[in-house]
Amino acid sequence: MKKIPSKAELRAELQKQIDDYLMQGGEVRQIPSGVSGRDNPMQSLPTPIFNESKITRTPIPEVLEALDSRRQKKPEVKKPAKKKPVEKVIYDDFGEPLRKVWVDS
After folding, report:
1. Cβ partners under 8 Å of residue 54, min gap 6
2. Are 99 and 90 in contact (CB under 8 A)?
3. What is the predicted pLDDT for the residue at 12?
4. Higher pLDDT, 28 or 13
5. Closest by alpha carbon to 105, among 86, 80, 91, 90?
6. 23-38 pLDDT, tens per residue?
7. In this structure, is the dihedral angle defined by the CA atoms of residues 92, 98, 102 and 105, taken in order, positive or negative?
């Protein structure tokens, strides 16, 4: 398993790269805080325009067929239908309802 570098190791590597760049004659310019890279920072960001044509896709049926052939077919397992309980009324000897009970059908 690949070891994830710690923050201290990342900082040390970045500092080493900066030092190497400066030793080769590179220069780091300081930009004042609040300065933007846009020409007019007070202007809102441009809205993207979606007027480009659609990119056509290249059909690759042989690749799809190869992928489908490698896929293992699972047999269909039919689940037994769940039996829902049914409410049944219990009557007394005179035909009057006594109570309701739930019976599995």
Report:
1. none
2. yes
3. 97
4. 13
5. 86
6. 999 998 888 887 778 8
7. positive
